[in-house]
Amino acid sequence: MKYTENIDDLLVLQPDFVGFIFYEKSPRFITTPWAVFSSIFLKGTRKVGVFVDEQVVNILQKTTDLGLDVVQLHGHESPQMCRELRDTGLTVMKAFRVGDDFDFESIREYVSGCDYFLFDASGPNPGGNGLRFNWQMLDNYTFDIPFFLSGGIDVEHIEEIRALRHPMLYGLDLNSKFEVQPGLKKVDRIKQFIEELRAEPQS
User: Fold this and answer.
1) How many domains does the chain have?
2) What pLDDT is attached to residue 39?
3) Residue 29: helix, strand or coil by DSSP?
4) Within a domain: residue 57?
5) Domain of life here (predicted)?
6) Full domain range(s) for residue 161
7) What single string gives the DSSP state of each residue in 45-100?
8) pTM of the predicted model, to two decimals?
């Protein structure tokens, strides 16, 4: 999210998490964070700061200044860095880009330092590519860290999402397919997605 009025409209839906990009190369980068964070966040909505290969001191400063609840690390951050941030009391979500050759065993060292994982599709940018990966690969995930599914999710995928039975699937990251432009969300479409996902499946 990037624009105050758009954020206010979204918050009416009471989302569990709202993400804010603190990566200057992203078109969703927040240039006026103080204005954006003037919105009224209800207790159940957590503010997520998304960082890419940022220094720990800068992440901690942003979380303190802006009251972030969760840090999402979307670069090449080390397991040690995740643990260091988590030891400060922050909730840490580490994102991984999943391609056809991705091995979930490669993230074992991150288990002790993360509260959540996020699995996104590989693409030219650290995130927000609007691409999907083969969700059947999630069957190979065996750790006990809850994960978010990300990458090209749209309303048309609701039945596929319902069919996913992985016990560690915790949430869905809605982004590119719900935008008018980078950072400006189609709130009505998000509302439609939430309502259809929560509705009783048709027999």
Assistant:
1) 1
2) 75
3) strand
4) yes
5) Bacteria
6) 4-198
7) PEEEEEESS--HHHHHHHHHHHT-SEEEE-SS--HHHHHHHHTTT-EEEEEEEE-T
8) 0.91
Task: Tell me phi and psi for residue 47, to 5 degrees.
Answer: -90, 125
The CA-based angle 35-189-91, given to 5 degrees, is 55
More confidently predicted of 35 and 49: 49
What is the rounded radius of gyration, in angstroms, for the C-alpha atoms of the chain?
16
What is the band of 32 on the pLDDT scale with cuts at 50, 70, 90?
confident
H runs (alpha helix) in the chain: 4-11, 33-36, 56-66, 79-86, 158-163, 187-198
Six token digits for residue 15: 């989302």
Please report, for the domain that includes residue 137, its CATH number: 3.20.20.70
Q: Are strands 169-172 and 147-149 parallel, antiparallel or unpaired?
A: parallel
* Cα distance between residue 111 and residue 79, in whole Å: 8
- The verdict on residue 203 lying in a domain is no
Query: What is the average per-residue pLDDT within 91-101?
Result: 94
CA 60 to chain centre: 19
Is the separation of the CB atoms in 175 and 152 below 8 Å? no
